[in-house]
Amino acid sequence: MSKAPVNKMIPFSSVDGPGNRFALFLQGCNFDCLYCHNPETINMCTGCLRCVSQCEYGALKVINRKIVYDKNNCTQCGKCVINCNRNSDPRVRFYSELEIIEEIKKVKDFISGVTVSGGECTLHIEFLTELGKKVRELGLTFYIDTNGSIPLWEQELMNIVDKVMLDIKSFDNNQHIKLTGVDNSVVLKNFKFLLQKNKIYEVRTVIVPDILDNKATVNKVSKILAGHENVRYKLIKYRQMGVRKEKLNSYTPSTRDMNELAEIAKKNGCMNIIIT
Ligand code: SF4
Ligand code: SF4
Hints:
This protein is an alpha/beta fold and 276 residues long. It contains 7 helices and 11 strands. α2 runs parallel beside α3.
């Protein structure tokens, strides 16, 4: 049985795939996106204990030199994260697939499926695969939300997962490296593989004015998506909230700019465009 670090579980989410879904967020990411809205999910906690004294509510204690987190005392004030040099989160806990399944069973009758996100969930591929099998046994659909950075065409997971939500942050490799710190060749290979296997629910691109060549990415992605009516192309406005402002100097694009990009995608034959 494998375990994975869990940052957060949301029993009912309407924004992580179709219908009402149980959403699971795993800790740890191999990208360091300049615009990351959840930077506390990137690094693993090293257990240095520095943040414990910052918690005024008694939610963090040290027992046998390890942090013990009491969620009943936590006010979600975020002070522990702010005071961590690694911008990590001491509230993360390791769960086995069976422990997660027990949580899912509590709400099973009210949801249509489970979505696993992150961080980057595919970094915990063994856990993800075993969890997916058990979710399917419950009669629920199993979706993942991924940055597409590991070769999915090699994974057993692809026989289990119903659909994938895939980020394509930049089609241009140099810009992708500038934005994420990582090459995009595997991402683009995954994109074509998943499309061919009819495994994509949604492709997402965050539109960042002045920093990325948004038109080029939307143009290329939408040409590939042309004719795939069941795949959504979501164009997301960059927003400053939650972003590490020292890393990125941009602004929220106007509705007009977003509509222009949507128009490019539409002209290329992309049928299912969402602006958010
Ligand atoms: S969250 Fe950060 S400060 Fe707290 S124990 Fe982990 S690494 Fe140390
Ligand atoms: S968010 Fe962190 S610092 Fe704030 S109450 Fe919870 S554990 Fe304590």
